[in-house]
Design brief:
The protein is mostly helical. It has 18 helices and two strands. The chain has a domain at 435-532.
Amino acid sequence: MKTISPDINKQSVSAVKWSALGSIAQYGLSLGAQIVLARILGPENYGLFAMGTIVLTFSNFFSNFGFAWGLIQIQDLVEEDIRFVFTWQLITGIMIAIGLYLLSPFVADYFNEPRVDPIVRWLSLACVFSAITAPASNLLRRNLDFRWINIIQIISYSIGYLGIGIPLAYQGAGVWSLVAAWLTQSFIMLVITFIRHPHSIKPLFWYSGAKFMSGVGITVFLTNLCNWLLNNMDRIFLGRFLDSHAVGLYTVGYNLSNTPNNLFIGAFQPAFFTAGARLQSEPDRLRRAYLPVIATVWILIAPLFILFAIIAQDLVGFLYGSAWESSATVLTILALCMPAYITWSMSTPILWNTGRKHFESLLQLPILAIAGYAFYNFANQGIMIVALITGGLLFIRAAVITTAACRRLNISAMDLFNFAVRGIITMSLTAASTFSGIKLGILGNSYIAIKLGPIAYTFAGININFSAVTPHLLPLLGGVFFGSLILLATVFIFPRLLGNEVIEMLGRFSPRLSLALSNNTKSGSRKLVAVEK
């Protein structure tokens, strides 16, 4: 039952393309749904749900335990592997769901919020759904079938949030609209994933390969537990020391910054991890695959997050309204740190695929201790301080894990220095142009206020007053337009700034674009030689 393809590069590129398309579609769906739900429900309901999902995601690590990841790592897959994984995924999922149900009163006491109790009890069902889904889902990843992985995610999210969550919110269901949406999405994903990749569900408690699968499962579990604590400790202590309103404001800012981050990670990391698992004995090929990814993150993706951070105030004001203005500060801080998060995420597969999978958790244990101390002592000072701590931790994690990955592939600091310099240039150009666009938008507001006065009209029985909209709309449009325009112009006019690694990465997904940039680079070189002569 071996599934290694003779052309791993072609399969990997196809997988990344489908991951990117699916991530973009999911980003659009989730952003639209979350904006509507946030406006209807307000910060308090969002905070209550965030408290429940913190516990749920923690429990999911126990229910999944990590057995299913072995289906990707193992070189020669047999039916017994799948049966063993499914059996123990089901057992741990049910056990954790029962435990979570029984411990829900203690969770409510920890957060000093009795309304969390029934939320946690209902969400415990998702532990079972998630545990059962994992084997079939990872079999799809093993086959690099990211086309269907993304189709399944889009269908399940649409049914859960657009079909169930938003209508219930309009009917006044409050936080329960989010609970119903989450459970519906989890169940639909389970059903469609199994239909797409059915497998044996005959129980198997032990077999000859169980030791390897268990070892992978334990390593994945410890790693995911460490990462979960580092990714959620901010909201754990916010919920303890502040209230559901503060947690709701912080969560929206965090989710806004993390959604495009998940877009890039979702597009690249799964395919990179799976392809790397097939290149475990070829470190040179891993190195050639890793460097273009890091270069692309620092030179092309990081400027987009700079733009995102600068427009945060107007973006939150325009999309969510005045009730969510405090979330903009969180968004600004965390958006600046997301390139570090992506760098860390793209470096972890290197450790896993070079025989150092246990390093990810071991290297982050000291960081976990620092995080616990910082959040425990400073979380009560407000969401801005918590965001600053979270951002600082992301940079530390990126530095530690990336350094370890580079050492495994014999990549020196000078190899990365060139990427960093080019990235600083593209980020600076994007920041300057984005600020200029916002200033022009503010001038546009002044012109409307002085020359035109208030503008209002009625559409479909709704009174629309532009005097309440334009303070955020015009600066937002100006910042996005000029920031992205200058970045694109820089890419096409000065392609040498990108470097061969980024052009190579772009060429994997758009040969025409890569050819155009390469031609511009050669043309610029010929002109330079002519001037020197």
